[in-house]
Specification:
The chain is an alpha+beta fold. Helix content is 15%, strand content 54%. It has two helices and ten strands.
């Protein structure tokens, strides 16, 4: 069961004031989202299993993400792509999976990635979270 959390994420650079962006983040039961360096750290209370970072620019193709993770030694790459969304789920070692995803949310892109703390079943939940990101309309 998921619950919705409205997280205000600040975007921008140090040279100009940051603009607030309403981001709807669907959290898995028992998960929390904590602001971290211009983005969010998400996961079960006390552990971060994924990072979300707000950026500008286009959503890359899943094949581009795949090349990036395989160049770092990842194998068994699964590609997922849709309108304004691209993701790869990969294996680093037996029993150690991860993901990298990018989603267009409003006029920005959100880059999501698993952390070294993520268990395989948490990778699935975090990837679903990234796929479901949306803007919060007042």
């Amino acid at each position: 069961m998921s619950r919705w959390l409205l997280a205000a994420v600040l975007a921008g650079c140090a040279q100009k004031p940051a603009a607030p962006v309403g981001l709807r983040v669907p959290l898995t039961e028992g998960w929390v989202a904590t602001p971290q360096g211009g983005g969010l750290a998400v996961g079960p209370k006390g552990r971060v299993v994924a990072s979300l970072e707000l950026r500008g620019g286009d959503v890359p193709r899943a094949a581009e993400l795949s090349r990036a993770v395989t160049s770092e030694g990842a194998t068994q790459v699964l590609l997922d792509e849709g309108e304004g969304y691209a993701a790869v789920r990969y294996t680093l070692a037996p029993g150690r999976d991860g993901f990298l995803a990018v989603k267009r949310v409003g006029g920005r892109t959100v880059w999501c990635s698993s952390t070294a703390n993520a268990k395989n079943e948490e990778v699935d939940d975090a990837l679903a979270l990234c796929r479901s990101l949306a803007t919060e309309t007042p």
